Amino acid sequence: MPRDAREHETDDATFLEADLEGVFPEGFHATTNFPTDVRVDGRWLPVERPEMDVGIRIVREAAGARAISCPMHRVRKGDAIVVGDAGVRVVLRARSEAEGEAFRFMSSGVSTERPKARIIADVAAAMRAAHAAGKKILFVGGPAIVHSGSAPVLERLVRAGWVDVLFAGNALAAHDIESAMFGTSLGIDLEKGANVPHGHQHHLRAINRVRRAGSIAAAVKEGLVTRGVMHACVTAPIPFVLAGSIRDDGPLPDVHTDAVAAADAMRELTTDVTVAVIVATTLHGVATGNMLAAGVATFCVDTSADTVIKLTDRGTHQAIGIVTDCEYFLSELSRVLQVAADPSRA
Q: Taking each helix axis from N to C terminus, what angle separates 326-336 and 116-132, rounded to the nearest 10 degrees?
């Protein structure tokens, strides 16, 4: 549907003032992640930063009114919040012919029998297109990337500029730093694939050293962390958000232990993201998907089809599932993007 104020007249949106901090007025308009317009003073306004399952706040400024997506916890007393559906329209985005051709064969749900190399080539094409347009690529990763020995590949992708923002939890960062310090992940020697005496303590010792330094960046500066994904994020540099969980060891000092603060930090970094690659993480993947606009090309990679299905079932309809292991995915993606291996680690 075109956004044209000359379309047939309709009523303006209704809005009410919030009477409590962190509480929408009853009957508030609950959003989707599709582009949305709100009619205010006879004009259609695009809702800034569309996101599913939030509300819409109307802000009046000297330059005119604005409509902005608003999570529930960000509501302030006196905010003008849209209620009901009148004067609100959702714009279903049509894919371009080129985009439709590139992804047509991948749009039939989740299957373990898709040609994975072909799909990964299309992921690489989407990443190239994002950078050509001056947009950002978001990578969301789980600790299996480290456990599988794939962290050096992700590190190379970061250093080569193919990752602009990283979302993860305490575990990916902790085991990545453990690997940098001790050559192990969960106490397993990543070169030999064997248990190391007292190796189960390594991640705790790694976390403790970083906590003493004060931050991951400080640990890098002090020479405590000399390689790895987090080292690459600090030295590239690219922004990252580590969102904590109730079962985290430590956690690392950079981890957001307040879930609401973590979500807000993630929201701030999704601006200009047009491609999201989610690898081996269910909870962080779903959390990220909830924040992304429908136009963000989203790829979810996991060995379990259930993880991919869960993401789409929770509203991230644009997500394309790739059922494969993270080691193959990252290695093939790196190959297609022509990211050279580090000869010192061959």
A: 50
Q: Which residue in 317, 284, 283, 285 sits closest to 300, CA to CA?
A: 285
Residues 95-107: what's their mean pLDDT? Answer: 45
Query: How far is 207 from 220, CA to CA, in rounded Å?
Result: 13
State whether 102 and 50 are in the same domain: no
> How do residues 123-168 score in pLDDT, each as one tens digit?
999 999 999 999 999 999 999 999 999 999 999 999 999 999 999 9
Is there a domain that residue 243 lies in? Answer: yes
Enclosing domain of residue 190 = 97-345
Look at residues 90, 125, 157 and tell me which one is the last residue of a structural domain: 90
The model carries a pTM of: 0.90
**Are residues 139 and 55 part of one domain?**
no
Contact predicate 190/143, CB 8 Å? no
Closest CA to 222 of 204, 209, 232, 206: 209
Lowest mean pLDDT among 60-74, 87-101, 171-185, 189-203: 87-101
Same domain flag for 207 and 341: yes
CA distances from 211 to 75, 231, 233 (A): 34, 15, 18
> Looking at the structure, do residues 101 and 79 belong to the same domain, yes or no?
no
Domain count, the chain: 2
* pLDDT for the residue 9: 59
Give the CATH number of the domain where residue 47 resides.
2.40.420.10
- Domain end marker among 90, 109, 127: 90
Same domain membership, residue 120 and residue 49: no
* The 3-state secondary structure of 142-203, one letter per residue: CCHHHHCCCHHHHHHHHHCCCCCEEEECHHHHHHHHHHHHHCEECCEECCCCCECCCHHHHH
pLDDT of 259 strictly over 80 = yes
Q: Are residues 252 and 322 both part of a single domain?
A: yes
The mean pLDDT value for 214-228 works out to 98
Q: How confident is the model at residue 309 (pLDDT cuts 50, 70, 90)?
A: confident
Tell me what percent of the chain is helix, strand and coil, each rounded to the nearest 5: 35, 20, 40
Entry field: residues in the chain: 346
Give residue 112's pLDDT: 61
